Amino acid sequence: MTENSKEITTELIKQLRDKTGISVMQCKKALEETSGDMEKAVMLLQKKSADIASKKSERVLHSGIVSSYMHSTGTVGTMIELLCESDFVANNEEFKKLARDIAMHATATNPQFIKSEDIDEHAMELAKEMFVKEVEGKPEEMKAKILEGKLSAYWSERVLLDQAFIKNPEITIRNLIQQAVQKFGENIELSRFVRYSVSQ
After folding, report:
1. Where would I find the H helices in the chain?
2. Which residue from 79, 124, 84 is spatially nearest to 102, judged by alpha carbons?
3. 147-151, 171-175, 187-191 — which is least confidently predicted?
4. Which fold has domain 63-115+159-197?
């Protein structure tokens, strides 16, 4: 063991598993590859999840579930459709929990779009107009970069896949789904959602 490496204990593996939801063996391997550095291990697993999800993204989705979450007040709730490749995964309790967690998250955060590609031109222009005024008076060479940063932050709060997961703000909903793809070995896609509120 090098001077900077940590001993890979069962407790360390458990902590990483609790943070990521990835299998014990993959967590152990990630910790070994990063010399026990928890932060680097999380980043490594997220990268692997994204790579796996990307490879599986072209596979056909034949199955899935509709899940919903209703707030205890009974005044707001969300229904989502989460697709996968097989009934075996669709009927898995962890898959059902994932769908319910996403529905609960959407109920709490009120996203406008599933992914950034869904944002229409009109919404883009309105957001841009709003922030153009805020960058007035800034140095010309910095305006574009500041505007881009403001727009990116604005949309990350309104695009469901880019939002920080309310149960674990260290990951986004996209990361959460990518972890599930890695766990189940199937392509998984959030295809649609509808949020209802008595005040809207």
Report:
1. 10-20, 24-33, 38-56, 87-90, 93-109, 121-134, 140-156, 173-184
2. 79
3. 147-151
4. Tetrahydropterin Synthase; Chain A (3.30.479)
In the chain, CATH 1.10.8.10 sits at: 10-55
C-alpha to C-alpha distance for 77 and 67, rounded to whole angstroms:
11
Q: Is the pTM of this model over 0.90?
A: no
pLDDT, one tens digit per residue, over 62-91 is 899 999 999 999 999 999 999 999 999 999
- Backbone φ and ψ for 79, nearest 5 degrees, come out as -120, 130
* Structural contact between residues 90 and 180, judged by C-beta atoms closer than 8 angstroms: no
Q: Where in the chain is the domain with CATH 3.30.479.20?
A: 63-115+159-197
Determine how β-strand 63-70 pairs with β-strand 168-172: unpaired
CATH class of 10-55: mainly alpha
Amino acid, single-letter form, for residue 83: L
- Are the CB atoms for 160 and 106 separated by under 8 Å? yes
Q: In a 3-state reduction of DSSP, which class is residue 115? A: coil
Residue 3: band (very low, low, confident or very high) from pLDDT cuts 50, 70, 90: very low
Q: Could you tell me the two tokens for 185?
A: 């070995």
